[in-house]
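Sample 1 of the test manifest.
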Amino acid sequence: MADWFKMAAPLPDQCAAQSARDRQASLTKPAGSLGQLEEVAIQLAACQKAQAPQINNPHILIVAADHGIVAEGVSLFPQEVTGQMMANFVAGGAAISVLARENNAQLSIIDVGSLMEEPLERVITDKVALGSGNFRRQEALSAAELAHALAAGKRAVERALTKKADLLILGEMGIGNTSAATAITAALTQTSAAEITGAGTGIDETALSHKRQVLEDSLTFHGLDASGEKPVPAPLNVLQKVGGHDLAALAGAYITAAQNQVPVLVDGFICTAAALAAVRLNPSCRAWMIFTHQSAEQGHGHILKELEAQPLLNIGLRLGEGSGAAVALPLIRLACSLHNQMATFEDAGVSDKTKSPQGAEQ
Amino acid sequence: MADWFKMAAPLPDQCAAQSARDRQASLTKPAGSLGQLEEVAIQLAACQKAQAPQINNPHILIVAADHGIVAEGVSLFPQEVTGQMMANFVAGGAAISVLARENNAQLSIIDVGSLMEEPLERVITDKVALGSGNFRRQEALSAAELAHALAAGKRAVERALTKKADLLILGEMGIGNTSAATAITAALTQTSAAEITGAGTGIDETALSHKRQVLEDSLTFHGLDASGEKPVPAPLNVLQKVGGHDLAALAGAYITAAQNQVPVLVDGFICTAAALAAVRLNPSCRAWMIFTHQSAEQGHGHILKELEAQPLLNIGLRLGEGSGAAVALPLIRLACSLHNQMATFEDAGVSDKTKSPQGAEQ
């Protein structure tokens, strides 16, 4: 396997970040009073090496795959939904379809490992397997499948870049992928799976307790459980043993975005688990990530803390599909507009630059 | 004083709310997985008696006033900033100016009691006083001034309605108005002012301790302090004694919006204090309010809890001007688009209507 994914991404431009911070301090508002909107404008200015950060061509990439772990009864929902939802994405009826239209964003759906034998129209098929292995009893992916999935994520980003994407939103669809994401998170943070296993779309207490046991057993089976004595397992090993095609493709995509100096929005629990794997594989990609929301899924807060990430939204979203990131996109655009268009104290002739004025809460 | 502000507003349409809830349950997503976006779409559908809630003509109303309490040294900032910022609002350089443009919202600035002797161009002047009294030593407003300010808020809303506003955003500007909002909140919730006094734009510990003392003394002076023995003071009494022209105008505006069945976005600490006074004056207006953010100002969480409100954003905003509400507007518009445009299970041919599909976190 070529180590393309270990090549360091450049750091976002620190001069541009400093200029952006200086500009924020000169605008007609109390210093810091736009909170996280100031921080995201500064981060984007650094990523774009720009005085006036802007998002003209956001591109949403959804990777879809099926998961063998579903055979253990960890999900309420039939696997055919993965394919049906891909069809819904391209037909325009899913949440992410609506959000792509309203945000003027391009939307690409990539089947990186679903059970669908025939390619779906308007879905890009880039897979070498129909679903992953049941990781309770075997590896989720072979080494070759892992390499393919990582590279499928890379290819997806590269295609978006040829279409001039200036911001990426990654999303996913795959019945069972919360289980894989939970196993990855538990292994990479050496936490008990039981602690971070959530009810997902609403399995009951009995099913939840079963899911916890399945995940604990799986981690033990692969020697990935939190023993407190072993070193933290390597991210590639974790992605292969208890991951999935979608999760590996996401990890490859986060890294490729950073290597190409394009900022990327991180969605909910599954995407953030893949982002954690990507950061462990290649820490340089962290600086290109913008965290958009904290989902209702248990365990998401745990990974966000691990990544020292402070997301923009916390409104009980738990849909996936990149939908939380797409909902946050208008906030990020407004952060840019405020940064670029507000008057400075000097321009506006407002008193007391050091004692800045306040609209309100003084 | 005519009791126009006590006339009950109708309840938002409960049939429309139920239809909207039913529609949410039929859309291709796990039930409840769009979190607060579902709730806001349902609330708007009820307010608009509509199957497809939408916001076509949002109107931002900013009321501005000066505050006599500034003489006690409670604010870092010179009072001339109130007028300078009004000029900045109409010139297009303030945060709210940018947000109005980006949201395609109308913006009206109303001087309800600033110290400006000459009317500013493009600012509506509707006042009978230059600033309020220093409520540490006298009433903030006379009874006639209070009546005028409440009615100024009413007139502002009525003007926006003649311009076909279908959603209102209220905001404020006034050096010193955090002190008035804190005093109102303490009196109406019978809490010690010291507990909820915040650092605002960043006064230091000594100044903060002084501000606390000034507010405690003011409440005692007017017999509005938390004694645990008296009944909770009447909202009109509180607005008159320790309020201000801007806060009273906001209260009148919230009530008028509800009486005219127009939903209204509630911004930060000062607006929420006025909203609390409005709800105490006329509880029927609560159902027409959408709470948009929790500001960094101490005390805001306290009022939100009192109003049983769960705002959309919590990103450290503390600018006022209605800016937090305007930042949340795109989320509310996306909530409508998702509600109106997503496919149902039946439309999309997605399996298992009762066991809904999930993009992700299953």
